[in-house]
Amino acid sequence: MTGPQLEDAKAMIAAAEEEAEDVGVPMCIAVADGGGNLVGFHRMDDALIASIDIARNKAYTSVSLKLSTEAVGEAAQPGEDLYGIETTNGGRIVTFGGGFPIEVDGDVVGAIGVSGGSPEEDMTVARAGLDAFESGE
Question: Which of 7, 18, 48, 57 falls between 20 and 30 A from 84, CA-CA?
Answer without folding.
Answer: 48
